[in-house]
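User: Here's a chain of 201 residues. Predict its fold as tokens.
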Amino acid sequence: EVASVDDATLQFYRRNAEAYARREITSRHQRLTKFLSALPPNAAILELGCGAGADSAEMIARGYDVTPTDGSPELAEIASRRLGRPVGTLLFHDIDAVEAYDGVWANACLLHVPRDQLASVLALIHRAIKPGGAFYASYKTGDGDGRDTLDRYYNYPTEDWLRATYGEAGAWRDLSIETGKVRGFDDAMAEMLFVLARKAP
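Assistant: Prediction complete.
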């Protein structure tokens, strides 16, 4: 079985779970609000790569039915303590839900999926979303995969490559890609692509 997350990258988050959990990024709240505005009240949301659970906490506080998950058992445990509910350990290639969620929120996690596996992971996410449901993900942009100074793997897509890869994964409508900059855990500023799409009804 081919892992959908590079092992060195997953080990980084397992080793650094506590330090990573202490970081809270507030700039994404605007994008979270935009994502939530595309959903019905009390919508069922799957969060992938929930980290310490900050975004899940925000969505739960706003009345949404959130299923938080992370690929690192250590981060899942930290999020579980924060949220006061179980947080599952879920690797992307193990997503098996079928039309179960109104939305999927995947902030800064799918950027670690090996390029040749991203379409198949996106297809699993597409299958998990109800028709008309919303899907948010963010990526560090570039021109081919590589590693950062912390030895984390990134797929570094261009906007065109990302659009084509989403197209391989299933039918979407209203696929919008915005650009911006985010300061990463490695303290470097990164050019980002923020993708919001709806599954075709």
